[in-house]
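Hi V.,

You were right to ask for the full record rather than a summary. Here it is.
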Amino acid sequence: MKKYLISLEKDVQRRALFFSQPDTSDFEIFNAINTMVLSEEELRDKFDFEQFKLAYHRNVTKGEIGCTLSHLSVYQKIVDDENIAENDYALVCEDDALFAEKFNENLTALLAENLQADIILVGQSKIPSFEDKELIINYPTTFSFLQKKIGKTKYRYAYPYKNYFAGTVAYLIKKSACRKFLSECNQNSVFWLADDFIYFERKLGLDILVVRPLMAIENPKLTSNLETLRGSLNNNLMKKLLKFPLKKLLAIKRNL
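Predicted structure:
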């Protein structure tokens, strides 16, 4: 399976930290598009600012544009690679990815399940730990005994209660799904966030699964505001708990 690492060329230390992890030597580096050195006029040729504002009700940042365009560029590489079959998965990661123990072994077990989903989210951004309570409360799936077990590992896969913005730290994507993205780019302007899995399901008809617990998170060594993040996640805990029963019910129904 082809593996791609999206990383800005200047981020030497981040790359070094990523490649210090086991089983990472087979990643192909894609130099992320550095939108900070591009003018707004240049960016408008590649990205639809107005459509973004209509969709998300705010202005887009240069970093968000760079993220979307970089992931689309990797999809182009996947489509252009004749050694990748239409139903083959490729692994796409960002350079802040921290892998759980035995990541490669567990990933192999996941691929052995011969899943049909277009995208499988093996990681999530802005989560402090692989089995954080935020996953259970705010992003529930069905009961664990109803989730599909991945080989002899501790991991399971399922649908979340609904698709959501999970970040793009680590995910599997089929070549056929990459082709759908590129077709959409050819027909319409690019305006979406790289992790708008809600839109990808609705517009592109993509089938998207999640893995629990997570196999990858953002590396805490690169998250200087981790305590702030923990505090933010703990805020409004009561509101999240009040919404939890309905979310859980939706997750159970979706996985039937």
